[in-house]
Amino acid sequence: MTEERSAVVVRDIRKSYGELKAVDGVSFTVAEGEFFGILGPNGAGKTTTLEIIEGLRKPDSGEVTLLGEIPWPRNTKLLPRIGVQLQATAFFDKLTAKEQLQTFGSLYGVSPGTAADMLELVGLADKANELESKLSGGQRQRLSIACALVHDPDIVFLDEPTAALDPQARRNLWDVLRAIQERGKTIVYTTHYLDEAEILCDRVAIMDTGKILALDPPAVLVRGLDAPTHVTLQKGAMSVVDASALDGVEEAHEDEVSLTISTRRPAPVLSALAERGALDGLQVRTATLEDVFLNLTGREYRA
């Protein structure tokens, strides 16, 4: 990817607070129209990195180019072209969802009618006349994203937009994020949910202790791990000895409720299990980004 065609270019940025290195030599580029995820546990440096890119925070060193412009010192030329959804959004008191959007839009000279389009995009058309204080947590997050989009920016920054949402609200928001990208927008977002990054992102940067540990499409990161597939059977479906003897099995072990088989060649293993009629209750788990994180850091992922 050439830097000339990139929406974001980050070169060796650093930010410390006393002895804490919040961002420690981070570099990456984001292409126009890309869905780019910065993922890692809480305290990894994701939000600080995003704030530096947005021009909200000055780096100690390093360079950032955003849509061909330098974001710091505060660059007013960039403001109409970027949309920012922070971890916590402060709305105006006693305004409805539609009025919130119309107010935000008025700051950019956007017509009042645009609010209806944005509410439709984020699935809140039926809540247009509802007070913001009456919305659920997931609906409030969607309204926050609509406020970031109301002026039709070229690039949207979303900082942990699905944090603290229940599973159904998270998945509803995934549909909103996909719809945003389909409109041709560049999305840069942070999350500590590895599963959603694996589903949504074109590329991800796995970050921890202020550094980027890996950067690639999720499938490439997982494929490069060369981790075994785990096939889990109900206990009693087969003995550990018989499972270990199957072609392609690397390891088999049993606990109180299940038998787990590890293999890097799942096809012959599954075929053999089918021949033995041992498929009832079978589950197959392939490697995930969480396994990548464990391999990179030597420890379990912490949200």
User: Could you tell me the radius of gyration in angstroms?
Assistant: 23 Å
Total of helices = 10
Query: Tell me, what's the shape?
Result: globular
Average pLDDT taken over every residue: 90
GO cellular component, one term: plasma membrane
Pfam families: ABC_tran
Keywords: Antibiotic resistance, ATP-binding, Cell membrane, Membrane, Nucleotide-binding, Translocase, Transport
Organism: Lentzea aerocolonigenes (Lechevalieria aerocolonigenes)
What would you say this structure looks like, in words?
The protein is 31% helix and 27% strand. The protein folds into two domains: 215 residues, 3-Layer(aba) Sandwich (Rossmann fold); 59 residues, Alpha-Beta Plaits (2-Layer Sandwich). The model has no long low-confidence stretch (mean pLDDT 90). The protein has ten helices and 13 strands. One of its GO terms (molecular function) is ATP binding. InterPro entries: AAA+_ATPase (IPR003593), ABC_transporter-like_ATP-bd (IPR003439), ABC_transporter-like_CS (IPR017871), ABC_transporter_ATP-binding (IPR050763), P-loop_NTPase (IPR027417). It is found in: Cell membrane. Keywords: Antibiotic resistance, ATP-binding, Cell membrane, Membrane, Nucleotide-binding, Translocase, Transport.
